[in-house]
Amino acid sequence: MHARVAPRFTARRLGMIGAALLAGTAWPALAQTQPGDTPAAAQDQSVPETEQSIVVTGYRASLQSSTNAKKNSVGFTDSIFAEDIGKFPDTNIAESFNRIPGVTIAREVMGEGLNVTIRGLGTHFTRVLLNGAPVAVDSTGRTDSQNTNREVDLDMFPTELFTSLTVNKSGIADQVEGGAAGTVNMRSARPFDRSGTRITYGAQLTKNTNSKDWGYRGSLLGSTTMGDFGILLGVAGVHNKVRTTGFETIGWTNPNLSAAQCGATSGCNPTGGGNWTIPGTVPANSGAGLPTGATIDQAFLLARNPGATISQIDNGIIPRLGRRMFEEGTKDRINAIASLEYKGERFHAYVDGMFGWKDNQLERVDMNWVGRNGAAIPLNTQYDRSDCTQGCVVTQGTYANAQWFLEYRPFIEKTKFWGVNPGFDWEIADKLKFDVAANYTWSSFHRESPSVVVLSAPNSGVVVNYDNSSGDVPTISTNIDLNNPANFAWPGGRVNIQDEKRQTETKGIRGNLTWGGRDFRTLFITASHSVYTVETKVGPRTEPYMRQGAASNASAPQASASIARNGTKKVASGYSLDPSRCALIIPDMQNDVVMDGGAFAASGSPGHGREQNAIGNASRLPAAARARGIPVI
To answer: Cα dist. 229→8, 87, 223, 344, 350 in Å?
Structure first.
């Protein structure tokens, strides 16, 4: 829900309302006009019409802004603007970034977006900027995670308080150094984003399908501009009731067979893993009717797993900790922003401030079938393939001498963040611009996550029936009542106390001195002997990096380019490359493409490269460019 409150009606609006009322009353009188009377229409011809303009806002304006930003960028850029961020039912900034092509997000166990991933690289390869400056938020990623890299948990930032989101997949000169995957920049709202006096508010009710209670979120922003000065204040808050249930496993593993069990002094467990050990003899009260003290060797395993080979038993994997879990609780967040802005004809200054507070009160419970470090005995197992030398998956089986443990773990997390970004830009001359920006951010994080673990009693005849034949969620059942406390004991259990605190601050200052006009906003890519260009909006001429020959009159009309029959573009007669407006960009030549034995050798690319003399051409082309005064990148 969004609304704007204007301070007053303008004279034009009052005039339009009055005209509408007069039209409604004067229309019947037109039939009574006398022949000698002057028509009202003729009288109105002497009144000059007031010039009117149409201002496009809302979703259409946001699409146009995104299109223009991409068109005018010198790199690979995608942007989302506030008019359509406000239209999305996104819970935070990460969810909005997920709408940009090539961007995916890592999600919290509750399903909420958390970190940004660009072009498939890890989240720590992405640089996150707030108002063009590096930002760090003290947190540890998703629940039970221990992120210590450069990731920024974007669930701290609500979409309602931001004007634009930009993803740069390639570096640009006026931006701080980015990540290997790319850079994302979050620009908070400022007064002159929409001039005048405005109030925007929104409220929503939220319902997690697994939770019994409702949550809510709301926001309020107010801004006003007074001549060249403006001020903006805003606040946003969220209270969510969350609950998640499901199945998960902490990895997969296979048994570590002894030499007697695999029937060889070497060659056991060729696929690695081996996180649990089958006992050498049957322990007392193992369950499933196994005789206590019987030797568990290769013959024992083959006899009790009919149809299975020792290679399958050795390499078949089961969940390391297969478990049903649920996590529930509340997640609260409050954010506030303030912005002061001065916008003159050639000088622009601003101070942006932001505060964030997040409080998670969560409880997690899971019931774990112990695979890792266990001593289960496999019986009647089946596998997804006959040849398991490269690994395979157990689809069905019974496991005697099994064990369970119950884990209870609360997550009490508090995060605080605040930052300030002052800066200015000054257009000294038509082609000379100077800008300076500073930044300071501070954040703290405190997590209390103790855990309580109790185990089923050892040698208590616990048997597990495992079924993963559907390939979806495994079914794990047992012969004991897991809801009966009498089936669990403290021996082997534990109480862990974990108290984690972090504090981070960032600060910096940067400046740019820019010289050049729109004529220099040209990107062209050179490969081999061809030149490819991206059209620029600089006026009716062929390309800004070309010039007419010396024999031509500079003031003469410029000929346009023509299209050959094969579809290629031929440069207009009399034009040549202007070295002062050109650069030769040579992409990285991967060894895997041009060398024998590389990753793409089977495609025939090394032989084709030799036929085309790719390496030789790549060395001659820069030499020719440098000889003409063209810089080489």
So the answer is: 19, 28, 11, 9, 10
Query: Taking a C-beta distance cutoff of 8 angstroms, is the pair 187, 131 a contact?
Result: yes
Instruction: Give the number of residues written for the chain.
Output: 633
What's the pLDDT tens digit per position in 144-169?
A: 665 555 678 888 888 888 888 888 87
CA-CA distance, 458 to 352, in Å (whole number)? Answer: 61
Contacts of 258 (CB under 8 A, 6+ apart): 268, 277, 278, 280
Mapping DSSP onto H, E and C, the string for 352-407 reads EEEEEEEEEEEEEEEEEEECCCCCCEEEEEEECCCCCCCCEEEEEEEEECCCEEEE
Report the alpha-carbon distance of residue 236 to residue 563 in Å, rounded.
55
Which residues are within 8 A (CB) of 300 and not within 5 positions of it... i.e. 6 or more apart?
A: 294
Tens of pLDDT, residue by residue over 296-354, are 999 999 999 999 999 999 999 999 999 999 999 999 999 999 999 999 999 999 999 99
Contact 83, 62 (CB under 8 A): yes
82 phi and psi, to 5 degrees? -60, -35
Which residues, other chains included, contact 619 with Cβ-Cβ below 8 Å and sequence gap of 6+?
Answer: none
Neighbours of 543 (CB within 10 A): 22
Whole-angstrom Cα distance, residue 321 to residue 250?
5
DSSP string across 581-611: G--B------HHHHSTTSTTGGGTHHHHHHH
Q: Give the count of beta carbons closer than 10 Å to the beta carbon of residue 423.
A: 20
SS3 content of the chain, % helix, strand, coil (to 5): 20, 40, 40
